[in-house]
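Input record (one chain):
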Amino acid sequence: METLDNIAGQSAQDNLDHLFRGDYRVTPFAYASQAWQLFRQEPGKYIGFSLILVLIYIIFNLVNNLAVTPIESDPASLEALGTGLVVILFSMVFSILLLPLYAGYVIAGLKQLSGKQLEFRDFFAGYRQAGPIILNAFGVGGILLASILIVGLVLGIPALIYFVASAHVTPRWYSELYLLAFIVLQWGVMAYVSVLCTFSQPLVIDRRMRVWQAIKTSGKVVSRHWFSVFGLLIVISVISMLGVLALVVGILVSSPVAGLMYAVAYKDIFGISRDDW
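The corresponding structure, as predicted from the sequence alone:
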């Protein structure tokens, strides 16, 4: 006789098998409409959290600028070198510690979509899963770096050998054309891999998947409708840019709506597994 855990696990796997076959649709504008409705339910909380993110960004840049001032005055000194290393280390650590905070919009959206009341502290709930969220970011970054290196090794080394060996007979325009094609291919690979990893973070948060499992699951599902998911990310980016053009007021609205679109898309495709938000 099957246990309840086995039945639940089989049901979850069936749901993923359904997605692996590509039986889903991506509707960016419908997601934008639903995200806007979620924002309108709790505008004060979303704007308040956005203000916190803006203030953190301002403080971070002020600290960096103050630290960089002595470096600019005497960049060749040992003191400037030490300060530069401290600034780099501070920036890296600070950025890593903020990763769970940036998941706040998604967590808040998933809780609302679960039919539960949003509380302001929910925006900081990412720190309860800080380890998996940070590891996911490193995992995705590592895959991107590896893909870039592979393309560089496969195409770059043979090309370098060829151009060095035939430098006196290879037209300059041919070299420039090859370089342009190489750069376009690198960016294309980065875009392709980035889109494949789109839903790895919410899979880690919602289904509590291990990082590698979340990345593989996101990739297998997204690969069925890669261009549709790419279009979704384009729409999210456009909304974010419109907010930047409208300065602070626009960012306070566009940032949460963009983050909520991400949550709505995840819920529409994968559903929501957790009930302990």
